[in-house]
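It is worth pausing here to work through a concrete case rather than discussing structure prediction in the abstract. The textbook approach is simple: state the sequence, then state the predicted structure, then interpret. We follow exactly that order.
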Amino acid sequence: MQASVILSDVRRALIESSAQFWSDAELLRYLNRAELDYTNKIRILESTAQLSLVQGRLDYPLPQNWLAAKAVFFKSENPDGTYVWKRLYPTNLEKNTQVMPNFMNTTTDNQGTPSRYWVWNRSLWLDKAPDSDNDTTLVLFFKSKPIPLSAATEQINLDDSLSEAITAYILDKAWSKENESEKAAEQQTIYDRYVAEGRKWVKKQSGDQRYRIDIDSPLPFDPLNG
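Step two, the predicted structure:
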């Protein structure tokens, strides 16, 4: 859905068919704020990225649209040229310092194979700097932030089925600016309802998921071949 569709709906509710009191630029700014607020509350947008590891380096800048990690995989290469992907597990600075108090020593004899990661100051840190055999690749699966729209002709970041949330958010801000507190409160209620609806939407994306099975194992599980 183009942003212009939402802005037209907003103008219709505000009884302003053209940009007189409400400019397109201001409404588009509210639209971007709506998407940012919505995704921050629901974590609905998803993305992937690759990071190239460097021998002896511990920290790597995260993508600009990164919001929260879901899974991090490390490419482990074998001497014969084959490779496997291994999952890195999350930790934090305090725990890693307890386990590896000398982790910041990145000299050759302290390098090795990373097994865990943590996030600090919008960078991903490894529990051990990679050595020459492990300066490979990380693949990040993460919840992402929306890309700000610069024109009303661009497509919104949210799924069309949730677009009414954006309309309600913009109208809430618009009515508040016009000191229409009752109308603003009504739109705030509608927006909050769509926040709850969005959380259900996220869960329903993988409709065949078995939520009662919660076994974390590094070994593959194939129900057909045992």
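Step three, interpretation. Residues 117 and 126 are 5 Å apart (CA to CA). The chain has five helices and seven strands.
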